Amino acid sequence: MAWNEPGGGNNNPKDPWGGGDQGPPDLDEALKKLQEKLGGMFGAGSGGGSGGGSGVSGTAVVALLALFVVVWALLGFYQLDEQERGVVLRFGKYHATVQPGLHWNPPLIDEVTVVNTTNVRDDSFTEIMLTQDENIVEVNLSVQYVINDPNKFVLKVRAPERSLQHATQSALRHVVGGSTMDPVLTTGREKIAQEVKQRLQTYLDRYETGILVTQVNVDKSRPPTQVQAAFDDVIKAREDEERVKNEAQSYANGIVPEARGFAQRQIEEASAYKDQVIANAEGEAQRFSKLLAEYRKAPEVTRERLYLDAVQQVLAKNSKVMVDVEGGNNVMYLPLDKLAAQRQSAAAVRELRIDSSNIRELTDAVMEQLRRDAAVSDSRSRGGR
Per DSSP, what are the bridge partners of residue 165? Predict the structure, then answer.
């Protein structure tokens, strides 16, 4: 029996302590119990001597520890894509922000939160609110954003996307509440979207959410359902007004150039008439000056010529001539229009134009006829005597 076996007691002469139950604990027994427990865990038997059990137990413990270390080390490797960033917390405290690539952090010690910084996210909101002129409008708004600061996005705000929703609602109500209904529903959507974007980004920067707003769009804005029909009538009336304005402008574009052209033509005609009158007046003045010189030279001939010209002008404007023969009782009637018609038919339907040449011929013929009639009348009156 071994010196340290149970049951040796004080009678064992090899007991170095000689104290029996007062000795140190039995190491072999403790190792044996540990081996039995490990064998129950890993399915190993409990047979064999005490030395063999101690060797198997040590090998299993070392293998288990080595396997644990290998698995622990492998779990610490991770890779980030180009659009991702990693926020590392060590024992719950911020440690670093890692860039894209292969990284290793000790598991159970470091906690890595991966954040995509290039993915454009969007969110939509529908709000019913009052405008500045106390009208109710319904606005559908969409917000597009990216995460530009992963550290702030993960650590500064508990729920950054919820903060984004609250900030968007606040900015939208502030902008719409400072505008009237017509711009919100018609032409002012783009301006409202820009103002909401600026105010929203100011709120997010103040909260340190790490969010960058890239685009804000007002998708739809409309009045409440109860007044939709009346608002449609207003829109139709506005469209009719615009259409009538366009038609009036089109008519003006057509009539104004025509009126300007007519006015320019009138001005040119008046200018031409002015030049014509001046030229005629100057010509008449020169003609009178020349006639005066001729009259001084031969008054009788010039007077006769002036008389004939006057008669010519008068007869050219009349188709009938009444002649009172001196010394006679009858008045002669000369139907010049009929004579001209007969002459025209005799000339094979040739148009008769009364000008200075044929008027002179006609006048001479009339004078000759008058002399003959006067001679005949004179001879008759003498024969009666």
Answer: none
